Amino acid sequence: MRNRYLDLLRAAAIVRVIVYHLFGWSWLSIVMPAMGVMFALAGSLTAASLEKRPANRVVTSRLRRLLPPLWLLGLIAVPVMIALGWAQEEDGEHPFTPWKLAFWILPLGDPPGSDLGIDSWEPLWYIRAYVWFILLSPLLWVVWKRLGPACWLLVFAPIAAIVVLDKTGFALPETADAVMWDFVTYGACWIMGFAHRDGRLARLHPTSVLLLAAMLGGAALYWQNGHQGEDAWDLNDVSESQSLYSLAFVLLTLRWQPGMAWLARVRPLDRAVTLLNNRAVTVYLWHNLAIAAIWPLLTFLALDDLGHLEKPVTLGMTFLLTGVAVLLFGWVEDLAAQRRPRLWPDAVPARAVSTATPDPVAVPMEPTGPVPAGWPEVGRDGMPRAGWSDAGRDGQPFAGRPPAGVSRHSAPPADGRKARRAAKKRDENNLIPTWWAPEE
């Protein structure tokens, strides 16, 4: 039985990631901190699996479902980047280093790529962060259970770690430093997923949740106001703000669950939500390349002078080209999950949850619909183990990575850490990829 509220929440986060990457609207990071939501859902899913199965089986199952779509992307993107001169690039963000290609197999570090192929590898920090959270979750879950009532300290430990890192200036070598900062940025959301799964979040008094969310959100916006990045109110540029605001948002969205009976009556939306959940990994991996292909395709068709229709046309083409990628490559998610491959899995589950309040001790039942690649299987009694049930549990993007050359604070760090972690962002007023833009 699927929890359609969590399905809808995940689908909304994926769409928000796509729109943000297309237009670069910084205010979207405040309307919905998508990555914090995704990590919280993933933490809930992982906790549900760890309740039912040995830790080694949970880790291998998750990796088995998550990595094959990445491997398929790498099999296509890496040879193309090499053929187009990656080895001859000078001053690129990822100089060609053969041994680092192993990160395309097991992304303990960011899978590398050429500057020309940036759209294929730039979003992969999320996959790398997800892998590390999966690997660390068995330990985190044991600590969470053993702390008892003091387990809430574990939620705020990553935020405390950010304070320590800021005060001390502590830094690790480049690859490890990126891992460390993404962990402390989104660790609170991941662990809050544990609280969602075991019912502790549902047992918090509503007034306490509202006050805590208001304090965290207010602190995030206050910090953002004094430590703005390239885009003044883009939380993705400032880890401190991103961590606090994402946690506040997750508290509100996972503490309450509205009824979802209405979704089944809006069939197009219902089917879109189902498709996005069944192809979440594929959509995330390929949407950036779909965006990069828009203007070359429009130019080829002599339709590149769109005037005031530019934004709606490019948005429509983004979804269209991403849909083509789903048709061409989405089947690998089914193979990874050991299911019969399907081209367009938008069939609405036969039974969907629409209760207003999640049940923290609900027992899983036999599966009634497909489970997205990269997330755990269902239990013997039917409800998928990670948040599709009333109990909730579960697992885009572009958050926590500041733009190239811009520090996360007003003053540039002495150790250059934040500059090394910076990711390149599109100019929100120019939808043309840099590699396609004509020379002046």
From TrEMBL:
Protein's recorded name: Acyltransferase
Source domain of life: Bacteria
Organism: Actinoplanes oblitus
Record region (Disordered): 383-440
One Pfam family recorded for the sequence: Acyl_transf_3
Listed GO MF terms: acyltransferase activity
Keyword Membrane: yes
Membrane spanning stretches: 30-50, 70-87, 125-144, 151-172, 207-224, 285-303, 315-332
InterPro entries per UniProt: Acyl_transf_3_dom
EC number: 2.3.1.-
Extent of the signal sequence: none
Keywords, in A-Z order: Acyltransferase, Membrane, Transferase, Transmembrane, Transmembrane helix
Acyltransferase domain mapped to chain residues: 3-331
